[in-house]
Amino acid sequence: MNEEQAKQRVKEVRELLEKYSYEYYVLDQPTVPDAEYDRLLQELIELENNHPTLRDEHSPTVRVGGQVLDFFRKVEHKVPMLSLGNAFNEEDLRDFDRRVRNAVGDNVSYVAELKIDGLAVSLTYEEGRFVLGATRGDGTIGEDITNNLRTIHAIPLKVKGEAVSLEVRGEAYMPKRSFQKLNEARQEEGQELFANPRNAAAGSLRQLDPKIAAKRNLSIFVYGMGQLAGKTIEHHSEGLHFLKEAGFKTNPEWKQCDTIEDVITFVHSWGERRPHLDYEIDGIVIKVDSYYQQEELGFTAKSPRWAIAYKFPAEEVVTKLLGIELSV
Ligand code: NAD
Questions:
Q1: Which end of the chain is more exposed for a tag (fewer CB within 10 A), N or C?
Q2: Residue 36: which domain range?
Q3: In terms of domains, do 200 and 58 share one?
Q4: Which of 63, 84, 117 is the last residue of a domain?
Q5: What is the pTM of this model?
Q6: Which atom of ligand 1 is nearest to the CA of 38?
């Protein structure tokens, strides 16, 4: 492909990705499967790598998430809420492991966690009390959805134990059963159906009336911290224990892995078991356990170098639900 052809293709792919991102993040109504979005994004990454003059700071390859809706108050994240680099096969995971070891040496341990397919949120607690809940938004600016998040019973309004000030991060989600019931009710009422639990959760939390979110039976898994005042935690695994003790709902299915081969075994076992969960997962997140090593590894513009998301291969692209064919 010559430079002119590459330029033309980059333009086409960026336009498509921007359109799909708008439908997914702003309208909560995707029109293509995630796998198609991911395929186009990979194509764009390769084109930009092969033709560095075509790189652009506004490209979907460096931007996180979507636009922020104007009717919510805007919240600036003190610590940016980033995306994650992707791995699609074992080789990508081994490459990640090599990059990590090259940077911090061989004494590395990973934590492998389920990648919950919901909406990323940040919860701020001041002296133990829940004061602010926000969406990830574009990573720097999110939407204040505190009133909607308060309706989720799994979110503690007050942390247990010491009245600490902290900001935690997690994934708000709609259980599969609630999603099915919701769509059944919507079908009876002749309303448009949600494409999947992720979009139903995001659509419910980005409503002005908190009564709607309250009826939707949402839940959350908290998986990390943005900030924590007055306490020293040195490992992510220790952070997960701390969050659980503080009353947050953490996902129990995480595993400490001393080698990337252990991670790969975990990935495959969940690839098979995922249909049995009552919530959707779209992959496995692998994180370097030591915060000290995380700091050494740092970040790219879009994602941390100390973590990666393995994406499961796309499930049946056309899902048969309630006898109706949904295209995503
Ligand atoms: P991502 O989904 O690849 O990963 C980052 C997110 O994973 C984090 O923000 C976090 O909220 C979440 N996460 C879940 N469990 C986690 C855990 N245990 N630890 C840490 N993080 C965890 O990245 P993204 O930037 O949110 O968006 C890309 C996704 O959105 C892709 O899956 C893409 O296919 C989809 N998308 C689809 C369309 C479409 O039209 N179908 C459009 C845009 C984006």
A1: N
A2: 1-63
A3: no
A4: 63
A5: 0.92
A6: 34
